[in-house]
Amino acid sequence: MKVLCLHGKGTSGAIFRSQTSSFRAKLPDQPIEFDFLDGPFESTAAPGIDLFYDGPYYSWWTGDTVEDVRAAVARLNSHIARHGPYDAAMMFSQGCVLGSAALLLHQEETPHLPPPFRSAIFICGGPSMPVLEELGFQVSAEARQRDIASRNALAKQAGNAAILSQGNSRWTGLDALTGGLSEEELRREIDCPFRVVVPTVHVYGSKDPRYSAGVHLSAICEPKKRRSFDHEGGHEIPRNTRVSDSIVELVQWVLGQGAEA
After folding, report:
1. pLDDT in tens, 220-243
2. What are the start-end ranges of the E strands in the chain?
3. Which domain holds residue 195?
4. How many folded domains does the chain comprise?
5. Bridge-partner residues for 34, per DSSP?
6. pLDDT tens across 130-154, in order?
């Protein structure tokens, strides 16, 4: 099996390899090839990353427009054509934006072709709101405002100063970002004309400022083919046994689902 791995903005394939090592080490002995890509653009480090990892750091695009995302999807599809097919894609943060856009654009524009990957594992990331709206999704004003506010909160809570002064207690103020809404209420903030149909796993943390973005991403995926898991942390992949074991179970499930599709 082959799994395409897409890192977050301001990190790298090598960093994502390290971030996922705790649960990947627990996967049963079976041939799984993890293909960790680097984004094409050099970047400053994501907030807090340079405290733990040396560069270089990369991103998948430099702007944040629909055109930027479409160009990144085109580059990704070119890589997949050369090195695929892939049984799954595993993504973190900005990587989730890229991977979800690739699936949505495939369904809207090239549904007669196989999907770019047979299943998806989204970790601590959401969709591109501009891409959703271009494709006919109705995004509420509250969801758009939440998306902007959560990005600003993440930059502050994940930064070096917050890490050094507060440690894990820096992940705060989430009720103000979610408005106290449940997961199902957050999902209803997006009206979907269609949904991602490949099997999906959604891993997000209830202390992550981008928690609502992760829930919104689950909303645009087929409910009967998705599983979600709250790791109860921030914008990170906790390395404790409970989280690692749960992610391993989900990865095995989604790979099995993708193989049957």
Report:
1. 999 999 999 999 999 999 999 999
2. 2-6, 33-36, 41-43, 57-59, 88-92, 120-123, 138-139, 190-191, 200-204, 226-230
3. 2-260
4. 1
5. 3
6. 999 999 999 999 999 999 999 999 9
